[in-house]
Amino acid sequence: MKTIRIGNGCGFWGDSLDAPVNLARHGNLDYLTLEYLAELTMSILALQKQRDPMLGYATDFISVLERLSPILAEQPQLKIVTNAGGMNAASCAQAALNVLKKQNITNRKIGIVLGDDLLPKLDELLQAGNSLAHLDSGKPLAEVRDRVVSANAYLGAQPIAEAIAQGANIVITGRIADASLTVGPCLHEFGWEWNDWRKLNAATVAGHLIECGAQATGGLWMNADASTNLANVGYPIAIVQADGTHRITKPSDSGGAVNIETISEQLLYEVADPANYFTPDVVADFTNVQLQQIERDVVEVRSGAGQPATDTYKVSIAYRDGFTAAGTLLIPGPNAVAKAHASATIIRERLRIAGIVLEHFSVETLGAGDCVPGVMPRSEPPEVVLRIAVRDARKRNVQRFAKEFAPLATSGYAGTTGYTTGRAQVREVFAYWPALIAKSAVQSKVDVME
Length: 450
Fold this sequence. Notes:
- The protein is an alpha+beta fold.
- The chain contains twelve helices and 17 strands.
- It has helices at about 20-25, 40-50, 60-75, 90-100, 120-125, 160-165, 180-190, 195-210, 260-265, 335-355, 395-400, 410, and strands at about 5-10, 30-35, 80, 110-115, 150-155, 170-175, 235-240, 245-250, 275-280, 285, 290-295, 300, 310-330, 360-365, 385-390, 425-440, 445-450.
């Protein structure tokens, strides 16, 4: 039975720059996927594009592609599928093309998937009756329309498969459902029907298992220890058969672990209802997944049928929602927890005297159990890190808050330290607005560059 090997070398923008290169070199891959995007990432990229119309994509990909170029020359069969295009897939593709030219790699085509960015026609969509209501509150988007900075539909696997069918060796997309980076190559290679819900379910499971990179191969594993060798952790590979059955593994000479626990933990990651995992391609059912350890670091995955895909896309919208800052101080010595809380009270009171009452004022004593409240028994530690985070619609209020930490170096409690890194940075807040839109209102497009 025909199989394809799909490895994912990136789980988010900021992941290891070495992982894609190591995986491509040692994974014997047909496809290398690189997953860069998250909701916050899209808003950051949107602002970058506003400042410079040639930006708005995950620039790490270009650095990775430069390092991958020798491997691409050695492995002509290797294809890359990535959502590094972010808010500007066309510019990302041009930058990638420039890298290939510089490396004298002339036999590759770059496919660009467009259509996910709804911001340019957002008002038109609203006027046409697409309320883009908040999925939790039901409020219409019109309430925050003037503060929206990005709006992107989660496209599915179909345009990826189409780009590969048109000869693309590298496919660059904007906002695509994470698992669809894997589903697309499966659809193309095996010629599955778009309504074969069993096989789409299986490919979605495979894509979900590898989409977060090393989380499936020992990263954050509850039983990881020094012997797991996370310093050299291998990134995941899905070996997919034509019937959808697949095995998850990693390069044999790498660290990490692939076992029932690591795969089970990733299977349920970011899943609200395991029986109804909504994607643009299928409503996947994770409750029928069966895992079997075949050999060391190889887990076979079998699953049943999913449900038909819905007629809507999920839309990720970000809007401006005030300003935030967070500062820390180290409070040592006896009664450290009490002194930390008292120090926070001092800061709040000094702000009140200055006529400032912040909308949100959060206090944590790290080291005393505040990171996971109620999980570990509290004790009196010899020192704690006082962390205060605030948010307010008025930037000047947050800027004044950031100036109240350093004075405690001489007017706070004995031993107070940790103030030498400068004032807390004031940053703009981007709030998340999840919504749905009819698939009929969104048109994807595929362009292929020589």
